[in-house]
Amino acid sequence: MSKALLYDATMCIGCKQCEAACAQQNNLPYNDTIAAETEQSAHKYTVVKTLDDKFMRRLCMHCEKPTCASVCPVGAFHKTKEGPVLYDVWKCIGCRYCMVACPFNQPKYEWGSLNPRVRKCIMCPDRVVAGKQTACAEICPTGATKFGDRDDLIREAQERISRNPSTYVPRIYGLKEVGGTSILLISNQNPEQYGYPATAKIGEEPLPEYTGRVMDKVPDFIPIWSLVLGGIYWISHRREEVAAAEAQERTEEKKNGSAR
Amino acid sequence: MKIKPTFWKAVFAVIMAAGLYSTYVRYFRGLGAVSNMTDQFPWGFWIGFDCLCGVMLAAGGFCIVGAVYLFNVESLHSVVRPAVLTAFLGYLLFIVGLLFDLGRPWFIWHQLIYMNFHSVMFEVGMCVMTYTTVLFFEFLPSVFERFNLKAPIRWIKKIYPLLIVLGILLSTLHQSSLGSLYLIMPSKLHPFWYSPALPFFFFGSAVAVGLAMTIFESTQSAKAFGRQLETPVLIRLGGALLVALWVNALLRFEDYFHRGMLGQIIKPSYEAYFLWLELALAFVIPITLLSFKKVRLSPKGLYLASVISLLGFITNRLNVSLIGFETYVGHHYIPKWTEFSVTLMICAMGFFLFSMAVKYLPIFPTRQEQEVEAGGIETVPALNEAALIHAGD
């Protein structure tokens, strides 16, 4: 059963304990300066964004069909059956295609490092496999970030929205975006206001299919195109051979004719 | 004539010194220190110019080889070697550029063991690697010839059909795939440049650039090495270039028309200015120039039209890779001087290696050979042999 996180912005009080717990879990520094940073970075996997008195978390969405896993030339990303999208640093060559391609701009880079890594939320895979919840969900004092099975959380989100239709924008962000994600957001505001890409822009089709449509043709294209090219080569050189042979015949005929 | 080389030598020295400093910054201070790339702009000038433009500018190799060996355009025979040399050096320098841009270049070989067949980048990587090897073999005959080694030339001649077909196949794949790289970013790349037809545009423009680049480098080396310009060859290439430009222009128009973008591209906007620049340089000006018979028949006119179209297609690659992302990201990306200086150093290395190869290897036909080709059948036996070796590659 695939696990997921449901973030309910209406329950969030902006205490940023999830940020601190995340940093601790991933051995990242955390202090007042970092707490004040409003953008994610290589040392800040998740951030609680503030707009007036409303909040919105940002973190890796752990797509069902992750773009990063599809684009990585060395397959350094993979989606686990439990839900987290993991990064294998020992494979990474540092091409940063994942960063360019991710529709949510989640992979961040250690620009100052001489052996840089891609950094992003990995959804506490050790905890999840051990049956525990993620660090951010565990610490959350109000239950704004809730860990559970994706299907259960979708049902719960739908219930919350239908129980309080006046409180929520009637949509679950992450339910269908780019084919669905393991992070589900419900809120009294649109996530787009906090930098999330608009559903209309990223669509509901998993992005890997955009390149998949082309890549699928490669295995057929190679033999067909080789045959065509080889055929053209053969024909044009065959023509040369024939022309040469004919020319020789003609000269021989001439010789014979003159001899006669 | 004496002052000119010293001036260029000084320029070369300055470029190399700056480049070496930037190289030091790159490997001892990191990517963040050497470039203006950020988490918002993870691909900068090195991807846009060194990689996208570099591979595009090296397309002459497969275009000319295809024309001469697949379609028997004998008249282009004399430019096969310079085109193959340019392509070989181009790909080598592309790999050098990649070693700067990759965050962990020491793991570049991971490509060979951790293969992800879904990744366009993987396909590009494999193709570039194999094609560079193919180009190496296509280039080897001129080295063997220089040292009068006849047996290895015969061996390579035997596998030549394979090399030719493989080279064109691999080029078709990766030239178009460089465009496919961007297919996965429909929400990020500006609609002026994001199109499902990107792979076709990238391949089509590579063919046009291959022809333009061959005109450019033939003229340039004729000037630099005091060789006679082979005007009929240039005229032939110019005609092909005009056709290639028309095909590209029509493809682009058809795409904008099909996606209902024609109204938007004529409206002034930040992106529109860059698009206009691109379209003017790549299509409008060179097509107009080449439409005049006078231009099409004059080496100077052909050179001018080629250079302008080359600038246009370079603008196109930079638009796709840099300008097309600025609105999405919300701020401009201007490369740091160290990024430019690394690129300049790599280009300077290219020019240097090219001139060295031309100087020491039989890349361009000698005067005598030119006369032989022009003069026809009446030849001295020794020269005939040289011509035969040429005919085989």
Explain what you see.
The complex is a heterodimer of chains A (260) and B (393). Chain A has 10 helices and 9 strands. With 260 residues, chain A is of the alpha+beta class. Chain A has 2 domains: 3-206, Alpha-Beta Plaits (2-Layer Sandwich), CATH 3.30.70.20; 217-259. In chain A, the strands form 4 sheets. In chain A, strands 8-1-9 form a 3-stranded mixed β-sheet. In chain A, strands 2-3 form a two-stranded antiparallel sheet. In chain A, a hairpin with a 2-residue loop joins strand 2 (47-51) and strand 3 (54-58). The relative contact order of chain A is 0.16. Chain B is mostly helical and 393 residues long. Chain B has a single domain (14-365), classed as Formate dehydrogenase/DMSO reductase domain (Formate dehydrogenase/DMSO reductase fold, Up-down Bundle), CATH 1.20.1630. Chain B has 17 helices and no strands. Chain B has helices spanning 3-29, 31-34, 45-57, 60-70, 80-101, 110-113, 120-146, 150-180, 198-224, 231-258, 262-265, 270-291, 293-296, 299-329, 337-360, 367-375, 381-392. The radius of gyration of chain B is 21 Å and the shape is globular. Chain B starts with a helix and ends with a helix. At the A-B interface, helix 3, helix 4, strand 6, helix 9 and helix 10 of A face helix 2, helix 7 and helix 8 of B.
